Every structure is written in structure tokens, then in C-alpha cells.
Amino acid sequence: MQTYKNNWAKFCGEVLILAALFTLVQYLITTGLLNQYYQINLTSMCINIILSVSLNLINGFTGQLSLGHAGFMAVGAYSSVIFTNMMGQPFIIGLLAACIISALAGFIIGVPTLRLKGDYLAIATLAFGEIIRVILQNIDYVNGPAGILGITKMTTWPWLFGATILTIVVIVNLINSSYGRAIISVREDEIASELMGINTTAYKVLAFVIGAMFAGLAGALYAHFFYIIKPETFNFLKSFDILVMVVLGGLGSTTGAIIAAVFITALTAVLQSFPAIRMILYALILIIVMIYRPQGLMGNKELSRQTFGKIWSGRK
Amino acid sequence: MLEFIQQMINGLSLGAIYALIALGYTMVYGIIKLINFAHGDIMMVGAFVGFFSLTLFGTNIIVAMVAAMLICAILGVLIEKVAYRPLRNSTRIAALITAIGVSLFLEYITIFLLGPSQRVFPESAFPIKAYNVAGLSILNKDVFVIVSAVVLMLILQYIIKWTKTGKAMRAVSLDQEAAVLMGISVDKTISITFAIGSALAAAAGVMYGVYYSTVNPLTGIIPGLKAFVAAVLGGIGIIPGAMAGGFIMGLLETMVSGYGNSLYRDAVAFGVLILILLIKPTGLFGKDTGEKV
Which of B281, B279, B285, B208 lies closest to B245, judged by CA? Predict the structure, then answer.
């Protein structure tokens, strides 16, 4: 009973904090204190959080290295634009379509490739991501390599905030459920978890499909904010961008992925006029983190109020 | 029919370039089980060294190629020492992510130093001539690429089959611990493998530059990926497999762009990769090995 009460209080507190955050930013936007530049970066930040948290589910928690996340983002972006701009449906239908179609793409790609392990899987997902891009370049309905221009701007702060929170809540709850424990057992030792009666393929596909779904959601939000989508935007360098966030944050830490996404977006904004230096920094981050701290900044630990409590009282 | 043979010749020269790059992938994978993502970028560095040696120092193409091979051999050994050696006992995924990091680093440090623009190989360095043989027009660059690739492969075969170093390389890739017990220096052998692989990639880079007459800092990505596909197709870790895989990829690609849609050229490579991974992940020349618990 006691824990139930505690949980309830904790839940209410979290909702209050989030509501306050939402209202504050909404207030800043309506009063015009947050100008266009900050709004663009805020949007990228939310999209990057969705991308890194969802890729972390595949790479970090399930331990299956996927290098094709940008491909699913492309699927989501294109399918949502087809529904909203070309068929005139409302935004919510576009978002749902993006989620469903990219989840489907994740399923179609995941079932055959997840039989592969380690580096082979990484290369196969990379190849699928690139195939998605090449196919999009060859479809005339979506203007081929030129991409789609003049997409109506529909991604507003409430949508962004809602989508980001939804992603985090779904993935955190999934990890804390019995499904999540099965997923983590696949990462820890695939053979052992298979011997315990866990259908490892099913759980790998499940994680892959959910990851792909949220990547599609991020793609849809991206398309309806930046006016233009091109197949070239979603090449494998974009997948590497997301990988940098996940690796930096810690493979298997949702809070780590969020912190890294925020940090990398801010870094990108600061270094906007020096793209080469930005990429050199990314590369060095990847190499140095892997050599000196292969578990990433947060390892597989989560940042929570307990962590702050421990730091506060000086206990270890 | 004549056109078909013409396409075959184009395919063979492209395939020779892929095969040379694929050899480096396969040798490195065979010895430390790492997909060296940076390999395509070493090829790009080789192409740039060749370019500068041709334009700044006015050397001929053979000297340019040797210079590129030497510099890239040193670069390869350096990369292994700095980035891959500390990770030898960590997980494969950590090593793979590091390799991606090294690849990005080489690309963008080159953009930073030389700018992102395309450089055109000087025409005077390699004047294009066409020979007419039985109605076919054979370009001297095709002959150059195929002959030098075959010579390099023969040298590689000699090193691996007949020298002590080659014996050590085979021993380390077969069983690292047993090789150490036999008194083989594993570190040294791995360094030599990186040196040879990178030198071959550099030679391929200069050939690629001569063949397509342009080079830019991101040149290495696509040939690198395709050569990787070639290595997997032949069976990664198997040297004759990489050669065969490279030639198959080159032929397949020229046939697709010659008779089909050239926009799908890149998709073909990846499609082949996925098919081979799903049907026979060990590759054409590979043997199945059981999984040890």
C-alpha cells in the first residue's frame, strides 16, 4: 500500500513538472521571447531525442547494432507527407500513417535481417537503409532525388512535446515490463536466454519494430517542420549521427540518450558554420568514448531522483 | 555481342579496383575480426596522395602509385596502433563503432584541410589512348588498371604463400593464441596486415582516380561499401574469395548500368549483400563453422 501511494505521488509530481515545462515553453513561444532560431533548435532537439531514445532501444537494450535508423525516418517522413500534403488528411492521420508504415517497414526488414548477428547485422541494416533511399530516389510520385518541397508547417510545440513524452514513456515502460527483461536478457546472453525459453527472435523483432515506429514518427515531425524532404537527407551519415548520440549517452540508458541528444543538438547549433569541425568532433567522440569509456557517459545506469538524492547525501 | 564484350572489359577494370579494396577488408577481418569501415577512406587518401604527386611533383603514374602505397601503409599501421589496438579485447560492437569514427575522421579532416571540392586528375598524367582490337575499342586505362591489379594480386599471393611473414599472417588468423605460443609476434603481424591492406587500397585509389579522373574527400565511401560487399560475397577472411567477389561485383554493376537503370546501380550492390547474407552468410568460398558456447 505504501509503495502504491509513493508511486502515485511520484507520478503526480512528474506530471506536474512536465506540465510546467510545457506551459513555460508554450508561453515563451506565444510571447515571442523564443525566436525562430531557438524554435528550430528546440524542434531538432525533440526530434533527436525521439531518434536516439528509439535507436537506444535497438542498439542499447536489445544489443542489436542497427545502422539503418535514418531509413525508417525517411519512410515516416515520406508516408506522412503523402497523407497530409498530397491527400489532404489532417496531421494526426499523417503521424499515425508514418508510425504504422515505418513499423511495417521495420517488420519486413527486421524479420530476415535479425537472424544475423553483430557486424553482419550492422552491415545489413546499413544496406537496407541505403536501399530505402535509392528506392525513394527512383519514385516519380515523390519527385525522385529532388524531394518534396513546400510541405505545410504543422509541427508545433504541443505535437513535439507530446510525441517526445510518448516515445520516452512507451520505451521506459516497455523496458521495465517483463518484455523489457526478456529484451535485456537477449543482449546479455542470447544463447542463455534462448535456453530459458525466451523466443529471442520475437523479442528482437519487437524491439526493432518499435524503434522503427518512433523513427518514423520523428521523420514525420521533421518533414512538417522543415518544409522540404529529400532522399539524400536520410542517408547513412544521418544514421551515424543518431548512433553518435546513443553511444555518447551510453548504450542502454534512456536518460543518457536524452542528455546526449540535447548535448549533440546544442553542439550542432553552435558549430553550424563549421560543418567539417563538427564532424571531426563527432568522429573523435566516437573513438575516444569507445577506447576510454565503451559503456558511454551513463553506462547502463539511469539518472533519477535517487541519483540526485545519493549525490546530495554524499553516499555511494 | 560486341557491346557485351565491351561492357565486360569495363566491368573487369571496375572489378579489379573493387577486388584490390576488398582484399584489404578481408585480410583485416581475417586477422582481427573487425570490419575496417575506414578502409574506403584510406583508398581516398591514396587517391589524393596520387593526385598531389602527379600535379605538385609531376611524377609519372607508377611513382605516384608507389608513393600513395607507402604513405597509406604508414597511415594504416598508425590507425591500427592508435584506434584499434586498445580495443582488441573489447566487444566487437565497440571496435565497429570505433571504425566508423575513424572513417568519419579521415573524411572530414580531409574536407577541413583540402576543402570539399572535387579535384580533377590532370589529363597529361595519363593520356587516354584507344586500341582497336577486332572491332573492340580497348582503352589504355583499362589495360593499366587490370594489369597493375593482377600484378599486385600476384605479389600478394607470393607474400602470403611463400614468405615467413605470410605464414605468420595465416597462423595468426587461424588461431591467435596458438600463434603466440609458437613465438609469432601478433602485434607485428597485425601491423603488417594493415600495412599491406592499406597499400592495396591506396593503389586502388590511384587507379580509381585515373579511371574516373576525379577525387573528392567523400570518394571513398561508395567504392568502400561495394568492396566490402565484394569481400562478403566471396566469403570474408578468404583471400581468393575477395578477388572473385570484386570481379563479380564490377561485372554485375556495369551490366546493370549498361542494360538496366543506372540509378539502381548502388541498390544492386546492397541487394547482393542482403541476398548473400540471408542465403549463405559465410560467402561463396566460405565454410560453415558451428557456434561455440
Answer: B285
Residue range A205-229: mean pLDDT, rounded: 94
The CA–CA distances, whole Å, from B138 to B11, B124, B131 equal: 13, 19, 5
- What part of A 248-287 touches B (C-beta under 8 Å)? 276-277, 279-280, 282-287
* ipTM score over 0.85, yes or no: no
10 Å Cβ neighbour count for B241? 24
Helix (H) or strand (E) holding A253: none
Distance, in Å, from the CA atom of B174 to the CA atom of B193, rounded to the nearest integer, reads 14
How distant, in Å, are the alpha carbons of A2, A6, A20, A169, A257 from that of A15?
20, 14, 8, 12, 21
Which of B49, B46, B40, B52 has its CA nearest to residue B102?
Answer: B40
Q: A15 is written with which cell numbers?
A: 506530471
Taken in order B172, B175, B176, B182, the sign of the CA dihedral is negative
DSSP at A105: H
Q: Do B270 and A127 touch (CB under 8 A)?
A: yes
**Distance (Å) of CA A77 to CA A91, A216, B30:** 12, 7, 40
* The three grid cell numbers given for residue B267, joined into one nine-digit string: 541498390
Partners of residue B225 in chain A, C-beta under 8 Å: 126, 130
Q: Residue B184 has which C-alpha cell?
A: 609469432
With beta carbons less than 8 A apart as the criterion, state whether B145 and B128 touch.
no
Helices B265-279 and B239-259, packing angle to 10 deg: 140
B43 CB neighbour count, 10 Å cutoff: 34
Q: How far is residue A32's CA from residue A23's CA, in Å, rounded to a whole number?
A: 14
The pLDDT value given to residue B47 = 94
- Asked if A263 and A97 touch (Cβ cutoff 8 Å), the reply is no
* Residue range of the domain that includes B145: 24-219
Q: Cell 541498390 identifies what position?
A: B267
Place of cell 517488420: A107
> Residue B246 in contact with residue B152, Cβ under 8 Å?
no
B95 vs B31: CA distance, rounded Å: 14
What pLDDT score was predicted for residue A147? Answer: 85
Average pLDDT for A135-152: 85
Number of domains in chain B: 1
Residue B209's SS3 state is helix
Asked whether B199 and B69 are in contact (CB, 8 A), the reply is yes
Residues B97-119: tens digit of each pLDDT: 899 899 999 999 999 999 888 88
Lowest mean pLDDT among A47-56, A199-208, B262-271: B262-271
The pLDDT, as a whole number, for residue A315 is 47
**Residue B2 placed within a domain:** no
What pLDDT, on the 0 to 100 scale, is given for residue B293?
53
Q: With 60 as the cut, is the pLDDT of residue A2 above it?
A: no
B273 interaction partners in chain A (CB closer than 8 Å): 123-124, 127
Report the chain A residue with the minimal C-alpha distance to residue B88: A291
Q: In whole numbers, what is the pLDDT of chain B averaged over residues?
A: 87
Could you tell me which of B135, B288, B146, B116 has the C-alpha nearest to residue B216?
B116
Cβ distance A279 to B98 less than 8 Å, yes or no, reads no
Q: Is residue B178 part of a domain?
A: yes
Mean pLDDT of B196-219: 91
Q: What is the pLDDT of residues A160-169, one digit of tens each?
A: 999 999 999 9
Residue B236 lies in a domain: no
Average pLDDT of A258-274?
89
In a domain, B212, yes or no: yes
